[in-house]
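Practice problem. Given the sequence and the SMILES for zinc ion, write out the predicted structure.
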Amino acid sequence: MPLDEVAASLYAWDLADEGVEHCLDNLEALAGVNSAYLVGMMHKEKRPLHARFYPHNPIRKYYTPEDSRAYWIPKDGAYPGRIKPLTSDREFLAGTDWLDTLTDAARKRGMRTGCEISHTIIDANVARTEYPDILQRDPFGNVVGTFEAIEAQRALPCLNNTDVREYLVNLATDLVTNHDVDFIQSCLVMFGSGYSRNNTVGRSALSVGWTALAATATGGCFCSVCESKARAAGLDWDAILAEARHIAIMITGRDLEEAHEAQLLRESNYSEAEFLLEHEHFASWLLFRRHSIDELFETIGSAIHTARPGVEFRYNTYMAQPELSGLNFKSAFAFVDSVRESDYSDQLGTPEGVAVKRAKLMKARRALGYDKPLIAALGVRPNATPEILRASIKAAVDSGCDGLSLGHYDGATMERLRAVRDGMREWEATEADWQHTPDRES
Ligand SMILES: [Zn+2]
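Answer key:
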């Protein structure tokens, strides 16, 4: 099957600084992009992410966004619930619907259009002040943040909380109803996976085997909503909490007996299977999280399809080991229309990184089935070389992908963008490559 879609993400400040036509000119001409989406709700993350400075922004050297702001103009009345989206207070961004700005320009070029709701949906400071009751809790009642970045003082909403679910449904419905989009892409951070090192590049040696599973005991969620829901489902919450607390103290080494136990286990041949058999209540909690995520995907997918049939619900993976956040590809992907496998191992600049990408794509392909588009992310940023990017495109072809999705234009160099087109040609990724044409042979 051909790689029909070549998508690219853009941020509101890219459009403000470089101009939408300039961004799309580059993406279309150099990389063959035919699908553009706005990261419509973006978390607090310095841009560009890896490099210190932008390679081609004429206005600023770097940008530090506000937390979890919407870069479209939320429709009046679309958020009757308790939680409402915040928009930017920055003068150069405020008051403009950047999603319309992008989709209007993209449509004129015949491109597909989309909007991503990225990792977080509520400003962490606002959430801690105004909605502390909706936040994920660890087994000791502490607020759970995203990833391992405790210093970022982020706060994750509990995905079982009804106010949070209503807010997510309202976001999706507002976007689909009031904007010209073909897909809503979600990259939502799910249940806190605890303080093992996980990210979108490679697979860390610190987070394999039983230690990665055990680290989820320092994540979420153990809030009162989860407790009620789990008890209603017949789970033994007191036993879950007792096991989770013990595991959390052990894996973090926060007390002497538990630290000693963890040392023994680390020096032993203890396995994931043994860990799960031994901690049956903790294992029941892991399964409870999975069912909660399945249900969440069903809720979001159905909100999108109810608002406008035919709009795609695309899930964008965000972790090397998504299962640690409660996501099981096979069960959750029953409710999505397409998947963007967000691996950026191209950034390692090595053949081993490409092998990691290929493995992740194979896993997603099998879980998604063969009739829904699988889109391979491509890290077009400076650490990836053109040679590695071309090899990544081969990995996408090898694993039966249906498209590519470039991350991210702001940090891309023109040379990397050209490598996308070159790699597509080299690995015969489109139907045009499968047809003899006299011009090409001359
Ligand atoms: Zn919860």
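Check your answer against the key. The mean pLDDT is 93.
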